[in-house]
Amino acid sequence: MTRPFLAVLLALLSLAPSQPAHGQNCVGFTDVPQSSPFCANVEWLKNREITLGCGTATTFCPNDPVTRLSMAAFMNRLGNALTPVDLPQVFAFPATVDTTSLQPVMCPMIQSHVVAGFPRRAYVTGAAHLSSPAAAIAVAARILMSTDNGAFWLPLPGSDHVATLYPGSNPPQAISLAPYTWVDLEVGQSVRFAVGLARVGGSGTTMTASCSLSVQIGNRNSASSPLDR
């Protein structure tokens, strides 16, 4: 089994499409030319640290055979690269929410997640649990993302939900957000996710609230993003 064959096999297993290569050599490997039809597959493997070379970081040894032990290591690294990451669910949120204004309130993750190695895709879902308003109010909930440690938040498309909250809600009324809306993440981004709540018209009141958020970081098979760029 040669390394080019292994590169094609692993790339097909992960459904990675071909990507254009850059530079005279393929992602820094002096023994794989940019023009090689296998370059995009080799690049995909290197980005995910399934292999970083043979002996040195500048050689891929494309014609060397692969032992069963080496194949086991490659397949194990492939599995690790494709295994989703579940972010810790740690939140900062006030127990009582003042909705006398239309300004949104946040239920953010305390910790940020740094995207390393290769681009990822985040799948996010959440819910808000609200109760005890003094009067019926309409409440909007959405999932938001920040890439600057919470200084600025952007809503994720498809996550908006509006519900009417009535007095004396017991048990708390749940507002479920979009099941697994997703957003693509780039290498180097530091991301935080949050549930945002806001009153929609009507008179102001207060309510008690809690929230839940599920974030799973998965693989983006179509992304190339060489390590040496």
Task: Describe what you observe in this structure.
The longest helix has 15 residues, at 68-82. Helix content is 15%, strand content 35%. α1 (3-13) crosses α2. The strands form three sheets. Strands 3, 4, 7, 11, 12 and 14 form a six-stranded antiparallel β-sheet that branches. β1 (25-26) and β2 (29-33) form a beta hairpin. 28% of the residues are buried. Residues 11-22 and 225-229 have low confidence and may be disordered. It starts with a helix and ends in a 10-residue tail after the last strand. By secondary structure, the protein is α+β, with helices and mostly antiparallel strands. The protein has two domains: 3-82, no CATH class; 85-219, Jelly Rolls (Sandwich). The protein has helices spanning 3-13, 39-47, 68-82; strands at 25-26, 29-33, 85-86, 96-98, 105-108, 113-114, 120-131, 137-146, 154-155, 161-165, 173-176, 181-185, 190-199, 206-219. It has three helices and 14 strands.
Put the structure in a nutshell:
This protein has 229 residues and is an alpha+beta fold. The chain is built from three helices and 14 strands.
